[in-house]
Specification:
Blueprint (H helix, E strand, L loop, with lengths): L3 E2 L7 E3 L14 H7 L9 E3 L1 H7 L3 E6 L11 H17 L7 E5 L3 H12 L3 E6 L5 H8 L4 E4 L4 H11 L5 E3 L10 H23 L7 E5 L4 H11 L8 E7 L4 H8 L25 H7 L2 E5 L1 H13 L6 H14 L4 H8 L6 E6 L14
Parallel strand pairs: 4-12, 5-6, 5-8, 6-7, 9-10, 9-12, 10-11
Antiparallel strand pairs: 1-2, 2-11, 3-4
Helix pairs in contact: 3-4, 3-7, 4-5, 7-8, 8-10, 11-12
Length: about 375
Amino acid sequence: MPEIASSVRTLPWFARPAARFWTCAPAPAEVREFHASLFEYAPTALIELPWLAVELGVGRVFVKDESSRLGLPAFKVLGASWAVHRALAERAGRGGAGPVTLVTATDGNHGRAVAHMARLLGQRARVFIPWGVHPRAVAAIAAEQAEIVQVAGPYDEAVRRAAGAAAALDTVLVQDTAWPGYEQIPGWIVEGYSTLCAEIDEQLTAAGAGMPDLVAIPVGVGSLAQAVVTHYRSRPAGRAPALLSVEPVAAPCVIESLVRGEPVSVTTGETIMAGLNCGTPSTIAWPYLRGGLDAAVAVADADSARAAGDLAALGVSCGPCGAASLAGVRAVLTGDGAGERRTTLGLGPASTVVLLCTEGSAANPHATPDV
């Protein structure tokens, strides 16, 4: 089927209906076993919100609430914990001894997760932080006893700085995006996110909902989306859900890449969706995004802020990044052209929608604009 890209003057939207026929290998089963062995592990809530189902004209809507995950207010620790575990085990297997410094760049949640794991495991952490990250988010990383390096530039520049610093002895770069020559640890991070998807399967089954018809995923460099695509496109042949990526209009690197058919970097602007303010897709995520995403949409800060407020009113603590999933689904399923977009995604009045709320409000304390 043809790929569809709308005019940016209406809705920044891309669709590829053939994505539901794309397949890949599954994530390793031992990831879930590792997380289950951690002291603070418990599945995060999957909350049904009938009011949203009525608004969106679908059968059921569930929100995966990642506002409290392994002691932190965001999902990122799933990837950081598994990757740090694997990296330290590999180092020990090569005869490495003594403490190391875990180095990373972050828009907030990933850096805090890496610093948290470093503190728990008796390691050091150095975190490079670009402009635009709220001081309280920076303070939360520092509270994990990490060394903070402020970068006078965007996220991509912070990643470059972190990669350079990790060339020193007794350092390990734990970055949640990949580039040629740096792919193993980002791959482990993606594997770590698979636990979230496995939980959703179990929780939907318990709710009598079965397989979702649409899953909406907030996207920065695309690592979480890679994990979600891997989960749903590695199933045996049968009905597969539509997968929708959502990113800020200020940092639309994934939708721009999908439209052009190749990964591209974009100049990012300011956005309250700080954790999604990324200019370049991860190289290991790109084949999964290109092959397995049904659609992509970009949303404005005001729409994410409104979604966060609405979710809070319904009892779900959600920062602007996590609320992007609701903002994206609203943009796609309502307004001009919504009927055609619903048909493209295979959605009807009995469909089940899952929104990934990737962070709680405590993870991103940005003030929201008037809506």
